[in-house]
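Sanity check

After download, print the first record. It should look like this:
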Amino acid sequence: MTTVSARLGAPARHHPWVVFCCRRAVRLVVSLFIVVTASFAMVRLIPGDPVRAALGVDAPPDLVAAKRHELGLDRSLPEQYWHHLPRLAHGDLGVSLVTGEPVAELVRARLPATLLLAVLAFACVLVVALPGGMLAAVWTRGGRRPRAELAFTATASVLAGVPDFVLATGLTAGLAVALRILPVAGDLGPRSYVLPVLALALAPTAVLLRIVRVETLKVLATDYVRAARAKRLPAVRLHLYHVAPNALTASLTFAGNLLPALIAGTVLVEKVFAWPGIGSAMAQSVAAQDYAVVEASVLVLGSSVLVVNFLVDLALALLDPRSVIRRT
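Expected C-alpha cells:
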C-alpha cells in the first residue's frame, strides 16, 4: 500500500507547478525570517537608550531600570530574540514607549492607508503606461515623427530619474502652495490622494512607458504583424489582437514588480504629505526613539513587500506558464 501511494504521489511531487510553488514558499519563509531578524537587530544596535528617551533625561535611575526590566531590555540579545519570536507568532508587536499603546493597534489603524496609496499609484501606472507606451510606439514607428520621439524619450528619462521625495516636494510647492488647488497634507478626502499618488506614480510610469514602447516597436517589426497589415485589417483589431498580447507580456513582468516597490516607496512620500500611514508613523518614531514602533513598521512593510512579491510571482507564472518549466 505504501509503495503504491508513493508511486502515485511521486509524479505530483515532481510536477513543475508543485516544485515552483514549493520553491517560492520556501524562499518566502526564509526571507520573512531574515526580515524579522534584521528588524530586531536594527533597533537594538542603534545608539541610545530608548527607555531613557521615553521617560526623559531627569527620570530616576530605579524607574529606568524597572522599565527596562518590564520590557525585557535588561536581558542579553540572544535571550531577547528567543522571547521575541513567540510574541511575533501570536501577533504581539510590543508596546509603544511613548504612548504606552499596543503597536499592533497602530499597525491595524495605519496599514490600510499605506496599502491604498500604493494600490492607487499602481493602478495609475498601469492605466497610463500600458496604452500610452503602445500609442507612442505606433505614433513613432519606422522613424516617423522624430521630434515627438525625442520629446517622449527626454521627458520619460527626466521623470524616471527624479526621486519620489523630490517629486513630492515639487508637487506640493506647485499645486498645493502656489496654486492652492489641492490640499497640502493629510487625508482630507479624495482630493488629498492626488498629490501623494502622483509623487509615487510619476517615475514608475515613465520607466514603464519606455519599456512598453520598446516592446511594442519590436512586435510591430515582426513578420506576422506585417502580414496582418498587408491583409488591411482594421487598426483597432490589428493592435488589440495581434500587437498588444505579445508586446505586453514582457512589460507586465516589470509592472508586476512595481507594487512591492511602491509599498516600500510610501515611507518618504507619507512623511512629505503627513499621510496617516505606516511610513509616517515610522518616521515620527525614529525622531522620538520609539523603537518598538520602528521595529514593527520595518517588519510590517518588509513582510508586505515579500508577500506581494510572492503573489506577483504566482500571477506572472499563471500568465506565462512556460516560465514555470524554465525555472524548475
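If your output differs, re-run the checksum step. Summary of this record's structure: The CA atoms of residues 164 and 200 lie 6 Å apart.
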